[in-house]
Amino acid sequence: MILVTAANGNQGRLLVPKLVASGEPLRAIVQSESSATVLRALGVEEVIVGDLADAVVRESAVDGVRAIYHVGPTLHPQERAIGFGIIDAARAAGVEHFVLSSVLHAIVTDLVQHEIKRDIEEHLLASDLEFTILQPSNYMLPLKLRPAFERDVFELSWALDRRQSLVDLDDVTDVAAMVLRDGARHFAATYELVGAGRYTAHELREAIAGGLGRPIAVREISADEYATAWLGDRDPAEAPHQLAVLRSISARYSAHDFLGNSNVLTWLLGRDPTSFEAFVRREWAAYQGARR
Known about the structure:
By secondary structure, this protein is α/β, with parallel strands linked by helices. The protein is 48% helix and 16% strand. Helix 1 (12-22) packs parallel to helix 7 (169-182), helix 3 crosses helix 4 and helix 4 packs parallel to helix 5. The mean pLDDT is 93.
């Protein structure tokens, strides 16, 4: 059996169907009954509704599983403690393979979330568990395309002339499914997962405009403005950790490029990674389809 944490999040929604299709029993953990309903409909054999910050929940989640895919809860103030806790629980339970979703260049510790993931990587290395660490670059997220789709403006919360490498989450979850399936072939591996290209915001805008077939503007927004979009109905002032993470991203990415290399991802996939242009076309088609 495989355990997936944050199983209805950005990665989980794509990974879970791939694991269900593989035929191996799957256990998922989520924090709400509404998320559990979604996963049960996808064919997940066991769904736990609970908070991984609770040691009892962690012990129940890891019991009897062969492998774990751990995605830290996005912007969660206890992400580090949760990561440490599930690694310790996995070791105590004799889990065969712990796969960690980390981040490209976790060593960059002036990024709040990177420092957390760096610490979790170190804890995993010291656990003596068989492990694989996946280090994806910035995600190509549908959320970031929504202003362009709806208001004809692409918004980015850092300097528009800085370059960044991106990766498609469908590619990331293809790799995660393969690593979980193939096991020992990937023990003790750390993989940087990066798509092709290095884009400024202006180049991303051009790609979006090409995909939509109409002019698109580009605008730099503050981390606080982006937090409002990310947090939805929650007041960013009531989420100090989340705001600190997003502000650190804006500061770092405005001062420095954030780049990686696509060779490892190309090798793992056995094909070229999904381009940003292809991602835009796919998401635009999905958006239009949902509105019909």
